[in-house]
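hey so u asked for the seq, here:
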Amino acid sequence: MNPQERQSRLVGALLVAAGAVAFSGKGVIIKLAYRYGVDAVTLLALRMLLSSPFFAALGWWAARGGDIEPLSWADRRTLVVLGLVGYYLASYFDFLGLQYVTAALERLLLFVHPTFVVLFSAMLFGRRITRLDVVAIVLSYLGIFVVFGNDLATQPGNVALGSFWVLLSALFYAAYLIGSGRLVGRVGTLRFACYAGLISSVGVVTHFALTRDVSLLFAQAAPVYWLALLMALASTVLPIVMTMEGIRRIGAAHASMVASVGPMATIFLGAIFLGERITAVQVAGALLVLAGVLSISLQRK
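ran it, structure tokens below
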């Protein structure tokens, strides 16, 4: 490998790591915003409204050129369903869960979505579950139980309800990944993500319009708007771009390894910005989850 290739791979690894940390910061930003009394639906609507122009610009950029395959009506229907499942509903359940659980537990619960992908693949497509899959799933869920039990004993609020919502978010995101496989290959990852993000924005804003007074969008404390903008840019749009470029440089397998810094980053970000305690039990549980998820992620595309 020549120096130019090494430099390119180093930049790719740094981009994936930065994207993973930025994604992980989303839970911290949400919990900071909740301190100002904003509800989950209003905050999610602000996030998607602020993200939409960037999704539109990136989607246009990704679709430029005459060699881009046009979307059929079947593709468009699939995109609508997947956008609503993977971005709208998964995000909504995640926002609900963060009302009750720590940012660290939320990130670990979301991080187990590859185990759901394995189980869905076995149930829907007859994929054989290997012995390594079983070991990885057991490790992941053991780590979750360790952290969940620790938070249940030490954290105020309804940790069980919050964990349910976040696990439901991970389940819906896994369904989104299963359904998007073939379409992503033809449409392109960035283009697909931007289109799905725009569809999600329509779903979120519709949900808001049906369940909330529109005046709530303009009645929040000033920090809520800054936090929503930060979430839209630093934890939604930029991580997508950085992760896609990083994967292009180092490949998906190595990107999975680098992205594992995300949950650990959330533990430290939660301690710094939210005052969440870092315990040995929490770190041990996180390491078990990381070991299990990496075992699954690195053995398949």
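The two ends are 24 Å apart (CA to CA). Residues 3-297 form one domain.
lmk if thats what u needed
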